[in-house]
Specification:
This protein is an alpha+beta fold and 366 residues long. It has 2 domains: 248 residues, Aminopeptidase; 91 residues. It is built from 11 helices and 19 strands. It has an 8-stranded mixed sheet with strand order 1-2-12-3-13-18-14-17, with helices on both faces. Strands 4-5-8-7-6-9 form a 6-stranded antiparallel barrel. A 3-stranded antiparallel sheet has the order 10-11-19. It is globular. The two termini are 28 Å apart.
Length: 366
């Protein structure tokens, strides 16, 4: 693994730490650079799970692999349980030179109500990908098959689905995943790539390398709304309930200015219900003790809704679905990195936010 040359321009925001503080992120960035190059298209995450397993087993971490979830455990597995989904958006070949958004296929498009979230998202992203380079891989092994680019994207009215036309990959068979060609970029105090949610997986591996003693769940198909089921099955298999589940993810903002108001994003609730007060307050207190700036995303959305004719949803997170399905027996809170360019290969987060999340989580290492 080649080390990145970490050259960063100081951001003007008062929340950014000094330039020299970023040098300690080099080991983390080396991990992230490696993971970003590995495909993990929604519904075809097997090869990425094997990469994670290799990295963790080299650290002598206890690793177990179940359908849809990879579990890593230190010597104090119940002190804190981290969770991060590892699937990323991409395409799936569904016919002769026909490609569809993989998340819509993996979710079985079961919510075609005319105003579902996935249908609203489909219209938002319809024209986003023209010219985007892509690469194809065998579904299970991840073996590289070739590259092409997206020529055209449109919504097919007959199938009410997002269709992609590619150049260079017309030989692919149905069922072949196609990932966005992605590389880590560092400039102006920020990192850019398809960060959701490989950045959280990289943070967890970095934490285990530095002695994290708890448990981590790496889940599949979050973008298809299924990851919580895999996590729930693991908890049920272990006959384990907890109020100390901390879900790591990214959180979208419309501009860099809005994203950089805070280093980390917390939540007290989502549309499914309230999160665990004790762990939420614990994370909030750690932020204050460490001087890490934070905001609550649910409060942010509620403030926005006061000025909107059509209210925004508080969102349905992986944690909220677990809380609802377990009737509160499995609960915790979320810790998110504010980003812009959400769900694109150019999703951007500040190094200040990355440093803040790592610094906070390192307080759980003896």
């Amino acid at each position: 693994m080649n080390a990145l040359n970490l050259t960063v321009e100081q951001n003007s925001s008062q929340n950014q730490p000094a330039l020299e503080d970023y040098s300690r992120l080099q080991d983390f960035l080396d991990i992230l650079q490696l993971l970003i190059r590995e495909p993990s298209v929604v519904g075809s995450e097997d090869s990425f799970f094997r990469v994670l397993r290799r990295e963790l087993e080299e650290l002598n971490i206890n690793v177990s692999y179940y359908h849809g979830v990879l579990v890593a455990q230190g010597d104090k597995p119940h002190d804190l349980i981290l969770s991060a989904h590892i699937d990323r958006h991409g395409l799936l070949c569904t016919g002769a030179n026909e490609f569809q958004y993989a998340a819509f296929v993996a979710s079985n498009r079961a919510d075609l109500s005319g105003d579902s979230v996935s249908e609203q998202m489909m219209r938002t992203i319809e024209n986003r990908f023209q010219g985007q380079p892509v690469q194809a891989h065998l579904p299970y092994t991840g073996t590289y098959l070739g590259q092409g680019y997206i020529k055209h994207t449109y919504i097919c009215p007959a199938r009410n689905n997002l269709i992609f036309e590619l150049d260079g990959l017309d030989f692919l068979q149905p069922g072949t995943p196609v990932s966005f060609l992605d590389r880590l970029k560092i400039e102006n105090g920020c990192i850019s790539a398809q960060l959701d949610n490989v950045v959280s997986a990289a943070i967890i591996i970095y934490l285990f390398k530095t002695g994290f003693p708890g448990t981590a769940l790496f889940t599949a198909q979050e973008e298809a709304g299924k990851s919580w089921r895999y996590a729930l099955s693991w908890f049920q298999r272990q006959q384990l309930n907890t109020q100390r589940l901390l879900v790591l993810d990214t959180s979208p903002y419309p501009t860099r200015e809005a994203a950089e108001i805070q280093q980390v994003v917390l939540r007290r609730q989502d549309a499914n219900g309230a999160f665990a007060d004790e762990l939420t307050s614990e994370i909030q207190q750690k932020c204050e003790n460490l001087g890490i700036t934070y905001t609550f995303k649910d409060a942010y959305i509620e403030a926005q809704n006061k000025e909107r004719s059509k209210p925004l949803s508080l969102g349905r997170t992986e944690l909220g679905r677990l809380v609802s399905a377990s009737e509160g027996q499995i609960n915790g809170t979320t810790l998110q990195i504010p980003t812009t360019g959400y769900h694109t290969p150019n999703e951007t987060a500040s190094l200040s936010s990355i440093a803040g999340v790592i610094e906070l989580l390192e307080t759980y290492i003896d």
